[in-house]
Amino acid sequence: MRRPRGYVLVADRLFDGRGGVLVNPVVVVEGSVVADVGTRGSVEFPEGYEVIELRGVTLLPGLIDAHVHFSGLRTYSPAEALTTPPELRALRAARDAERALMAGFTTVRDCGSTIALHLKRAVSEGTVLGPTIVAAGRPICQTGGHCDIHYLPLEEVRRLGLALLCDSPWECRKAARAVLRDGADFIKVMTSGGVGSEKDDPRHPQMSVEEVRAVTEEAHRVGKRVASHAQGAEGVRIAVLGGVDSIEHGYFLDEEVVELMLQRGVYYVPTLCLVEFYKKTLENPPPGIPEWRLRKQEMCVDAMPRSFQLAYKAGVRIASGTDYYGPPLRAFGNHADEPIAMVKYGMRPEDALVAATKNAAECLGLSNVGVLERGKVADIVGVLGDPITDIEVLRRVVFVMKGGSIVRKVV
After folding, report:
1. The overall pTM is greater than 0.85
2. Alpha-carbon gap, residue 352 to 362, rounded angstroms
3. Strand (E) positions, 83-176?
4. What angle do the packed helices 255-264 and 233-241 form, to 10 degrees?
5. 377: phi > 0 → left, psi -120 to 50 → alpha, else beta; which?
6. Is 164 in contact with 179 (CB distance < 8 Å)?
């Protein structure tokens, strides 16, 4: 069958990613880009283009999840990553990539995994169906930090090389160079403890400002960004003073670090949907989840919405990210959980949509996606209903176009 010269999409509404809404929109797609956007009667239907009527549908820019991990894991056992063959984990991750795309997420940022560096290549060459992947590769942390594997001998952790352990500015600088050599699109550092690491506390800081600055200098000189896992306020402060571009999680923010984030223009990826995950697993712990992790979840669950609301009201730029990595309740394909959680905890639906489109694209350093306008890449999603009046319709994806190619159409 001959492919049409292009497409004309006709729907009920359009959200442009910047906060603007069109009624009775028309979108013309030529090749891989958006050729025109307007309303019916104001946009010409080019000859030879296929017209697709999407009744009852709202069109949006391709949605973006700014924080995932292509781990290929399916349980909450800390040992699964070491006992599952890497080939099996890679195959599972490929399936997860397809699930993300079918859910309308045409771009995702992997915040730390070795699989993602190879998976992004498989997607870009067409071997695997999935979203555009922005990958960090191996994260950088201090010895005993959040990405150290605390129950293994230190020598074994270094041999495995799943994360790079560094304990001075020079070691951090060298690690940053190694990660960039791997082909990382950005660098991930750890400046606080975390819920998923056994022997530290999410509120306690890790790394020094000088160590973080060594990483950001290496990244920024080659046009790459740096994201920091930072849950406690002091860890956030260290990361921001060290020059990072985004704070991931930020569970225990205070007014001082929020003001610092505003001054430095740092993005905030709150992974707020984990509040719901934490509540569910505290009520009914899934098999394999360790007791120490449940204790930490309980420690964080009330603080997370407060920090989110503090940052939102102050005007910090917020991007949507789930921190999903594969097991039940954190499975790929459920990425709409984050903007839905943002609305539940006080964000306007329009702002939640911006967080999952324009803001997320800017957080990732991408200028060709995140808004639905002429000249941008034709990553376009259609949901059945109006997400501004009912954010839950983000789960009802009926149309997905990536780079001008239709990958899902169920209406």
Report:
1. yes
2. 15
3. 105-110, 132-135, 140-141, 164-165
4. 20
5. beta
6. yes
pLDDT of residue 306: 98
In this predicted structure, the answer to whether residue 252 has a pLDDT above a threshold of 90 is yes
Q: Sort 239 into a burial class: Cβ within 10 Å, 0-12 / 13-18 / 19+.
A: buried
pLDDT tens per residue across span 377-407: 999 999 999 999 999 999 999 999 999 999 9
Cβ(321)–Cβ(360) under 8 Å?
yes
Count the residues in the chain.
411
Fold of 6-61+371-409: Urease, subunit C; domain 1 (2.30.40)
Which pLDDT score, from 0 to 100, does residue 411 have? Answer: 76
Q: Helix-strand-coil percent breakdown of the chain, rounded to 5? A: 35, 25, 40
Are 363 and 246 contacting, i.e. CB atoms less than 8 angstroms apart? yes
Domain map (residue ranges) of the chain: 6-61+371-409, 63-335
Can you list the pairs that 339-344 forms with residues at least 24 positions away whose Cβ atoms lie under 8 Å? 339/391, 339/394, 340/273, 340/391, 340/392, 340/394, 340/395, 341/272, 341/273, 341/275, 341/276, 342/270, 342/272, 342/308, 342/318, 343/391
Residues 6+ apart with CB under 8 A from 221: none
- The CATH code of the domain at 63-335 is 3.20.20.140
How much is the mean pLDDT over the chain?
A: 97
Give residue-wise pLDDT tens across range 9-61: 999 999 999 999 999 999 999 999 999 999 999 999 999 999 999 999 999 99
Kindly compute the dihedral angle of the four CA atoms of residues 24, 103, 361, 66, in this order, to the nearest 10 degrees.
Answer: 150
| Residue 55 CB burial class (10 angstroms; 0-12, 13-18, ≥19) | exposed
CA-based end-to-end distance of the chain? 21
